[in-house]
Amino acid sequence: MGRTALVTGAGRGIGRAIALRLARDGVRVGVHYGSSADAAKQTVEEITAAGGEAFAIQARLGAPGDADALWTAFDEHADGLDILVNNAGVLGGRIPFADVTEATYDEVFAVNTKAPFFVTQQGLSRLRDGGRIVNVSTRITHGAHTPELMAYAMSKAAIDTFTATLAKELGPRGITVNAVGPGATDTDMNTTRLATEEGRAAIAAQSPLRRVAQPADIADVVAFLASDDARWVTGQWLDASGGSML
């Protein structure tokens, strides 16, 4: 029996790249989206055109009942799960600390922290023993402090704790739980910063490799953690920022 994955926020950016990479590895992929129906459809079509299997499911994330709605939609397409990738997230904007509103703070934590918690909790009855959970975090939880992204970093720091603690909880079932920490990546989230030569050069200079990360760079790391090759790695936060923390 082939493996089945669910990737949240898989219509665009890093999530899309993860879905495409897992499909190339022979995994049947659930492409979750919140509002980007056309983008999710394109992801599914690209996977199927290459000979893979995929299906799209829609669900908002962060409000009461959202996780249940997601899994109800998933159950219409699959009878079990092997890989869960909690990728969906929002930045909340680059906002000075004094200007962060309660509404922005609540949205960031609802999508980035609450949603993965309850999506995972409700998905455990579907996740097979020996499965994989990969959470997409950020490099800025490990020292690259950015004041205008404080709420975002706090929401992801909670995910890092969630990752390590859940690994202990699920270890007896042979399920590994890990997180990846990307840096600035060439996605919609960084469109403005990458729109100029100066901005692109500044981001590229953060890495000793002197280039801007592509979504596929992160997806390949996630694919490793989702594979049997990573069977002895659990509870870890893996720097996927091109060495920008050096």
Automatic annotation (TrEMBL):
Provide the alphabetized UniProt keywords: Oxidoreductase
| Keyword Ligase in record | no
Q: Does the keyword Oxidoreductase apply?
A: yes
In terms of superkingdom, the source organism counts as: Bacteria
| Pfam families in alphabetical order | adh_short_C2
The molecular function GO annotations come to: oxidoreductase activity
Q: List, alphabetically, the PANTHER family matched.
A: OXIDOREDUCTASE, SHORT-CHAIN DEHYDROGENASE/REDUCTASE FAMILY (AFU_ORTHOLOGUE AFUA_5G02870), SHORT-CHAIN DEHYDROGENASE_REDUCTASE FAMILY PROTEIN
Protein family: Belongs to the short-chain dehydrogenases/reductases (SDR) family.
Please state what the protein is called: NAD(P)-dependent dehydrogenase, short-chain alcohol dehydrogenase family
Q: Name the source organism.
A: Amycolatopsis sacchari
